[in-house]
Automatic annotation (TrEMBL):
GO terms for molecular function: DNA-binding transcription factor activity; sequence-specific DNA binding. It comes from the Bacteria. It comes from Robinsoniella peoriensis. This is TrpR YerC/YecD. InterPro entries: Trp_repress, Trp_repressor/repl_initiator, TrpR-like_sf, YecD_YerC. Gene3D superfamilies: TrpR-like. Pfam families: Trp_repressor (PF01371).
Length: 98
């Protein structure tokens, strides 16, 4: 993980997020913390990652999500060379479904 983001303020933000109990609390918190556009951008990246894992093409992803090819490429780079955070979350979501 990048040491650039590992700060006391980020630690406190993550502690706050870990204290959220359900989806409704997430909505309340994130609507206060983020702008609508920031929240939509985060959710778009998550959807792009999901579609990339499903082997969708950049064109299919761009059409469905409205993401630019630059955004799709950045998410793809994270999936391939990042810290496996997406994979960890997708795996846990899959386990929860079963």
């Amino acid at each position: 993980m990048s040491k650039k983001i590992r700060t006391e303020a980020v630690d406190q933000l993550f502690e706050a997020i870990l204290n959220l109990k359900d989806k409704e609390e997430c909505y309340l918190f994130f609507e206060d913390v983020c702008t609508v556009n920031e929240l939509l951008s985060l959710s778009q990246r998550f959807e792009v990652a999901k579609m990339l894992r499903e082997h969708k093409t950049y064109l299919e992803i761009a059409e469905k999500t409205g993401a630019s090819t630059a955004t799709i490429s950045r998410v793809n780079r994270s999936l391939n060379y990042g810290n496996d955070g997406y994979e960890m979350v997708f795996d846990r979501m899959q386990e929860k479904k079963q």
